[in-house]
Amino acid sequence: MKSRKPKMGRPPKAPGEAREVVFTMRLTEAERAELAEAAGAAGVPPTQWARETLLRIARSGDTPPAQAMTP
User: pTM, whole model, 2 decimals?
Assistant: First the structure.
């Protein structure tokens, strides 16, 4: 009988901790580059930077109207 190799990788997350929802948005190449630059300056991947930044703004309760955020 063939022996099974133990599974490698990270252990599964506890219920409610795993991120299962994908949030998609469209960006111009210039916008993507701007976000990647900001993430690089923070030393984190762009998706992590975007998630943390958006959640910080949403949780602050100080969310400006969308038209006020447009350059």
Answer: 0.69
Nearest CA to 28 out of 36, 16, 20 is that of 36
Position 6 pLDDT exceeds 80:
no
**Domain spans of the chain, in order of start:** 29-60
pLDDT value, residue 70: 60
Spatial neighbors of 2 by CB under 8 A, at least 6 apart, are none
- Whether the pLDDT of residue 54 is over 70: the answer is yes
Classify 15 as helix, strand or coil: coil
For the range 27-30, what are the long-range contacts, defined as Cβ-Cβ under 8 Å and sequence gap of 24 or more?
none
Among 40, 62, 59, 58, which residue's Cα sits nearest to residue 49?
Answer: 40
Dist CA 18 CA 11 (whole Å): 11
| DSSP label at residue 44 | S
